Fold:
Amino acid sequence: ARWVVAAGLAAGLAGSPPAGASGPAGSGGTGNGAASPATPAVRPDPAAFGRAPAIDALALSPSGARLAFLATGGGEPAVGVMQVAGRQVLDRLALGERRLVGLDWADDDRLLVTTYENEWLPGGSAGLRAYMRLQIYDVRTRRLVPFRTDRAAGPRDAVGQRPVVRRTAEGLRVYVRGPAGGLHLVSLDTGVGREIENADDGGQYFLDAGGRVAAVASLDPVARAWRVLIRRPGAADLVRRGDSAVDLLVVHGFDAAGAALIVSEEGADARQFRTLSLADGALGAPLALPDEPVSF
Structure:
């Protein structure tokens, strides 16, 4: 429902009425129930089918009061922030040469903007490299704070994945994987990240609702196969490994109950989705998927 609301707002922002809306008088309806004369069909511009959408990457704030989006039409791409009530655009952040990775709200006032940026490295490793960056935008003060670690790190404190927001018993927490692979707890005020764990293998962290690391997915550097380290409170950790160096495991996130991960193994066979139990590391039977694409 939140996605549908966001899509409707974006359609209005882009200048087109939401699906099912009535047109004004003279555009197929007179506004008083009387039919108007038929108008000849207009042949669409073929070039329009190849254009990127004017509004993309929608993200509603936790209360639904604000909407963040990527505006790509009419010039330089920019991140916009809109007040849902009244559809007032509060600000636009020009991206320049950066490419947007994702938008995530920490709370109703602070937006997490993840982008890719190109940077030229001099010396022996000279070349143009792309790095993922995280910035924290405060809607109230219009202040943009970049993520940085509390110690010397890689080029300009790049991040390894999109931030994870958790509302825990201790309060609001934002986590991100830092440039050296460690998991960082990020201050929303200063942007400084304090390393709280390091998997040492560039793994991807999966945090439960309480902000605890439930699993770390990575590539086994020796076997060259996927590996998932499962953390079990009060018990020994479990390690689940792939059988072949050909296979690649993609972890999509938690199931509805938070008791398992949804994974798919990319190998010689067709792609299949399964559950990976966080209790015993067992892989479940392939999940039943609809035969036809789901329409929204």
Notes: The chain is about 5% helix and 45% strand. The longest strand covers residues 110-121. The chain has a mean pLDDT of 78. The CA atoms of residues 209 and 257 lie 11 Å apart.
